[in-house]
């Protein structure tokens, strides 16, 4: 059974197709990496994955649920400026989400 299933998502931004028919199937216990050159669409993909952006086509399901419980933290910015990176991550973990992506 899939933990995260990305099923044929496509997404455009300012008339430019950023994601085109993307499929990804992650099973429980698997570890994956999202690798690509600057501007390839990695962060854009993660924003669709966590639900910040809605795909133009396709779907994302997490634990067979269309509402994503995934959280992520960007490399450049802390959510809480007064906390360390570790404290920010621990703060995120206590919000109830069980799946985390780090950029």
**Helical percent range?**
10-25%
Q: Give the low-confidence spans.
A: none
Specify the structural class: alpha+beta
CATH architecture annotation name: 3-Layer(aba) Sandwich
Number of individual domains = 1
Number of helices: 2
List keywords for this structure.
2 helices, Rossmann fold, 5 strands, two-stranded parallel sheet, 103 residues, alpha+beta
Can you characterise this structure?
The protein is α+β, with helices and mostly antiparallel strands and 103 residues long. It has one domain: P-loop containing nucleotide triphosphate hydrolases (Rossmann fold). The protein has two helices and five strands. Strands 2-1-3 form a three-stranded antiparallel sheet, covered by helices on one side. Strands 4-5 form a two-stranded parallel ribbon. A hairpin with a 2-residue loop joins β1 (2-13) and β2 (16-27). The chain is globular and about 40 Å long. The two termini are 26 Å apart.
